[in-house]
Specification:
By secondary structure, the chain is an alpha/beta fold. It has twelve helices and seven strands. It has a seven-stranded mixed β-sheet. Helix 2 packs across helix 3, helix 6 runs parallel beside helix 12 and helix 11 packs across helix 12. The structure holds 5-O-phosphono-beta-D-ribofuranosylamine.
Length: about 300
Amino acid sequence: MFQRLQQKWKVNGFQLILILCTFAIGGSLTGIVGKKLMNLFQIDQRGLWLLIYIIVVTLVWPFAVMLISVPFGQYQFFAGYLAKMGRRIGLTGKRVQQDTEKSKYNDNLGLCHGQGKEMIHIAIFASGAGSNAKKIIDHFKNSDHINISLVVCNKPGAGVSAIAANENIPSIVIDKDQFFRGDAYTGVFMEKKIGFIVLAGFLWKIPDKLIEVFPGKIINIHPALLPGFGGKGMYGNYVHEAVIAAGEKESGITIHFVDGHYDNGDIIFQAKCHVYENDTAATLAERIHMLEYEHYPRVIEKLLSE
Ligand code: GRF
């Protein structure tokens, strides 16, 4: 059961304990405050007492858990949890992504508008294990308007190539000199009708010429909260080590458009997570990966569907 909760809430074991403590103490506090309020208003025990008590504790509970979540360091989790509950019961509107400027970017994309369900072909560029690539591939498996049509890799034998092969997705290993010429692979992209490029752990800089061919149609995910901890050499565990060394209390992910500089383009979406005092680059990376899996496919879909 605890493992199921960990997976559902995308938290580690330690955070799960803190969350459960918050629920328990917040619940007790709700009961105490509820009783006090009932006494204060001197509501007749025989009449509608129970009904009013239920209403009172329902109203008090969110405040109580939010209050308790602060010393337990779980404010962010409970803010999200309550917002989700609010959405479920129709109290709050649909989730607005942190990418509030998204509509501006959509105009830039020039995709999908008025094109009905025309298929958009995506190329995923990756250099490593490809766990994000796999999540994206899985997410769009049954899509009727988005298809992962090509995997581009710069490292022979990288895990992502095996993933592509298993999924029957065409893949190519690119050559450095040709790639940096900028237009050497545009023929392949045209042939595969690629309309959008998703970088998922791709370590080479994208040449200006390729950006010109795909203006506003190349996005990247960075495992930290840009503009901090980005730039040349900031990838993988180097990022997490720098975040921990700087004593940051929060890290997260940034999904952004790609321009001619490392980790510099307009930000589309960010999500945060806690950095714990005993975190290592590996434990932080694990939490960051969870955020990436949760958000990257969804953000891509949203960008391409509106
Ligand atoms: C991810 O953390 C991503 O943010 C960064 O590179 C990593 C790729 O991991 N750009 P994986 O290969 O998808 O597992």
